# Entry
Amino acid sequence: GQSLEQPSEVTAVEGAIVQINCTYQTSGFYGLSWYQQHDGGAPTFLSYNALDGLEETGRFSSFLSRSDSYGYLLLQELQMKDSASYFCAPGGGADGLTFGKGTHLIIQP
Amino acid sequence: NAGVTQTPKFRILKIGQSMTLQCAQDMNHNYMYWYRQDPGMGLKLIYYSVGAGITDKGEVPNGYNVSRSTTEDFPLRLELAAPSQTSVYFCASSLGGGWYEQYFGPGTRLTVT
# Structure
């Protein structure tokens, strides 16, 4: 079967660093994607890891360990606009991605 | 490019009514998806399509139907609406399946009362 685990909520301070973990179990795994969704908005793509290791895109980095079925999203220099929900999404076959319940990130001033 | 567009933005239906949610994309993507998102939850796949004329069920297809007569359009049909179908519906498209980046429309907020 398929399973996906992320913390439901994380709180951090503006300017700090936060890590959102994701463990997954899915068939036909190709890679791990991360999406951001602001309240009332649509999900938008952040990053994708096909191989083990760290991918960096500006203030955001994403890590994957295929052997551990584990990944994380690292957000640096947190800004208030980073307050949103973050979804890890393992990708498999033609039916695309599996989205979990996501992590609600709260940024405090 | 407009990307992925959805209409309507909001809709209130009475129990038993039917409606079609429209979705169109202008990126020439073969893959299109319909998701629903209940409050505070993740997205659940309703139906998907890998190209014109080809559709398949996702995780929660009951109560819905789709068609894909063109590459651009992927309408979702709700028959005999029920309160359990109150949700936000997102349409998405991608260049390929699997890990390819999905581009989402703005969503349709549907209430069934």
